[in-house]
Amino acid sequence: MNVVVLGAGAVGGYFGGKLAAVGVPVTFLVRERRYEQLSAHGLVVESRHGNFTVAPQLALSASEIDHPDIVIVALKNYHLEGALPQIRALVDKGALVLPLLNGVSHIDTLVHHFGANSVVGGACYIEATLDTEGHVVHTSPMHDIIFGTLSGKNHPLLSELEAAFQACGVPARQSSSILIEMWQKFIFLTSFSGITAATRKPIGDVLSDPVTRPFLNDLVREIESVAKAAVNLSENAFEQVMNKLSSVSPSMTSSLHRDLEKGLPLEIDSLQGAVLALAERHGISVPSVRSVYAVLHPSKDGSRS
């Protein structure tokens, strides 16, 4: 099984690095600046599950990669359109596309371009970031990954990938209902990222505040109501999300919050903005989501020159 990781940021670097560290053939398809950084220093991962460094196999273009079996797309949503030609080149060589992007709307984009048989669904739960030296810093125990075909049938390549992740200590699971899993994560992530970025606080501070916690409850309820208009979620989806929010480390925050602090562009259009668009389509009132989106919108394009 030959794995390509498109993007060697925090998520792609961590999961691709874990596979490479146990001998799985992994090629990181990256841009020039990241290529130079990784060529000079290796892929360095600092994790609560153990630090490690690998000398990664790198490529600047899909044309350099032979016989790809799976391409893990680990990009920000606002970079997806620009990456479509590279993904197309890999799909034409036989690769299955496994996206680990935030949100859910990217699935429609990928299926439109490459067909349902070439695209699978995926979701991951991880808190990780890149430090100033480009090292992957994994800051909480969570590093779960879920994937599955859109049809719900098992796929031999995904079974092989599941075994490879489990062999390197990553809790991985092939799901027969991946779209529901992705929507469940969407509720969690959109509420978690929105509240931590809007308050500039970790989740523990939010949950312990007598004013902010009820606002978070409203946020989750609104996103759940929109999700249920799109997919057949379980009746206790709200309780599942609130339990997960309460079970993570109190010091945990979101990549959206970290991007805000770094002055980077924000993925609010594929998260909170996507909820607003779906809510309007289905006639659902989401005032809490609209408030979070409005608070973050002035920073959407980042502040870096």
From TrEMBL:
Catalysis performed (reactions): (R)-pantoate + NADP(+) = 2-dehydropantoate + NADPH + H(+)
InterPro entries the UniProt entry points to: 6-PGluconate_DH-like_C_sf, 6PGD_dom2, ApbA, KPA_reductase, KPR-Related, KPR_N, NAD(P)-bd_dom_sf
Documented EC number(s): 1.1.1.169
Pathway(s) this gene product operates in, as recorded in its UniProt entry: Cofactor biosynthesis; (R)-pantothenate biosynthesis; (R)-pantoate from 3-methyl-2-oxobutanoate: step 2/2
UniProt keyword list: NADP, Oxidoreductase, Pantothenate biosynthesis
SUPFAM superfamilies from the UniProt entry: 6-phosphogluconate dehydrogenase C-terminal domain-like, NAD(P)-binding Rossmann-fold domains
GO CC annotation, single: cytoplasm
Top-rank taxon, per record: Bacteria
Top EC category: oxidoreductase
Domain Ketopantoate reductase N-terminal, first and last residues per copy: 3-151
Domain called Ketopantoate reductase C-terminal: residue spans: 181-297
NCBIfam families: apbA_panE
Protein role: Catalyzes the NADPH-dependent reduction of ketopantoate into pantoic acid.
Protein name: 2-dehydropantoate 2-reductase
